[in-house]
User: Which sequence fits this backbone?
C-alpha cells in the first residue's frame, strides 16, 4: 500500500527541480531525458525496454498511486524510482493545465536511421518541416495505428521529446522506431536505396490518391513524406519523391489538416500492402 503522506513536499527539492528543467529542450538534450505525463504514456514507458529500463523515475500523487496501482507496480518492476508527491509538486513538474497525477522521466529512445533501414521497413512516415509538436505526435500515433515500422523526423522538424509531442503520441512513441535529426535528402536517398518508394503528400500533387489505389501501385514498400502544416512541402523536397500525391476532396472542405491527411495516406498504404499481391500477407497482424 502507498504511504498516506507525500514523500516530496517541496517544489524546491533538487529531484523536483531536475525534473522541471526537462520541459526545456537544451536540458533534455544535455541529460538525454524527457518527461512522459499521464497514465497511458507512463504505462507504455514502464513496458518499454531498450538495453535497460526506459522509465527512470515516476512522480505520483497519493491519489494517482492508489488509482493506478498497476502502473506503480510496473514502474517499480522496470527499475524506476517511484516518488510520492503532493499536488503542488506534480503541478510544478507537469506541462499540462490539468495534470493527471503521474509524471515520468524517461531515457531518450530514438533509433539511428541506419537501423531503420537495416530492418527493411515496408511503411514509413517521414516528417519533413513539421513544426507543430501536437501534429508531430498525432502523426506518430497514426503511423503506429496503421502498422508503420518507423517514423523519421528530419532535422527541420520539431523535437521528438517536446512534451506536447510526447502527449499527442498517446504512448505510440514507445511502440515503433523513430529516427531524428535526419536531413530530408539523406532520408529519401537512404529509403530509396533500401527499395522503398517515396510518396510526397501535398494538396497540389499531380497524382490523386484514389488513382494510385486504382492503379495498384501502392502495394510495395512505401515512405510518405509529410510537410509543414501551413505551407506544405517545399518544391525541392517534392522533387525528391517518386510521386507527389494529393488526397482527393470530394466535398466542399478547403483542405485536410496534416494529421488527418497523414492518417488517410498511411491507412491507404496499409490496406494496399495487405491486399492480395501486396508486400504484406493478408493475415499479418
Assistant:
Amino acid at each position: 500500500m502507498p504511504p498516506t503522506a507525500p514523500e516530496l513536499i517541496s517544489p524546491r527539492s533538487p529531484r523536483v527541480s531536475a525534473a522541471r528543467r526537462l520541459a526545456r529542450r537544451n536540458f533534455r538534450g544535455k541529460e538525454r531525458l524527457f518527461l512522459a505525463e499521464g497514465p497511458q504514456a507512463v504505462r507504455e514507458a514502464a513496458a518499454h525496454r531498450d538495453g535497460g529500463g526506459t522509465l527512470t523515475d515516476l512522480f505520483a500523487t497519493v491519489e494517482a498511486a492508489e488509482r493506478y496501482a498497476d502502473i506503480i507496480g510496473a514502474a517499480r518492476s522496470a527499475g524506476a524510482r517511484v516518488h510520492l508527491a503532493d499536488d503542488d509538486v506534480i503541478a510544478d513538474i507537469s506541462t499540462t493545465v490539468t495534470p493527471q497525477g503521474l509524471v515520468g522521466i524517461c531515457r531518450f529512445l530514438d533509433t539511428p536511421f541506419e537501423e531503420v533501414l537495416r530492418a527493411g521497413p515496408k511503411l514509413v512516415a517521414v516528417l519533413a518541416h513539421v513544426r507543430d509538436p501536437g501534429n508531430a505526435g498525432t502523426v506518430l500515433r497514426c503511423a503506429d495505428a496503421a502498422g508503420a515500422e518507423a517514423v523519421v523526423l528530419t532535422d527541420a522538424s520539431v523535437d521528438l521529446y517536446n512534451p506536447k509531442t510526447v502527449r499527442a503520441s498517446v504512448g505510440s512513441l514507445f511502440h515503433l522506431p523513430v529516427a531524428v535529426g535526419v536531413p530530408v535528402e539523406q532520408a529519401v536517398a537512404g529509403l530509396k536505396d533500401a527499395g522503398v518508394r517515396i510518396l510526397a503528400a501535398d494538396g497540389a500533387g499531380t497524382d490523386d490518391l484514389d488513382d494510385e489505389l486504382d492503379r495498384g501501385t501502392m502495394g510495395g514498400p512505401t515512405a510518405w513524406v509529410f510537410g509543414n502544416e501551413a505551407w506544405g512541402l517545399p518544391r525541392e523536397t517534392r522533387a525528391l519523391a517518386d510521386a507527389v500525391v494529393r488526397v482527393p476532396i470530394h466535398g466542399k472542405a478547403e483542405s485536410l489538416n496534416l494529421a488527418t491527411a497523414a492518417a488517410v495516406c498511411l491507412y491507404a498504404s496499409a490496406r494496399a500492402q495487405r491486399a492480395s499481391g501486396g508486400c504484406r500477407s493478408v493475415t499479418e497482424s
Observations:
- The mean pLDDT is 91.
- The first helix runs from residue 14 to 21.
- The two ends are 39 Å apart (CA to CA).
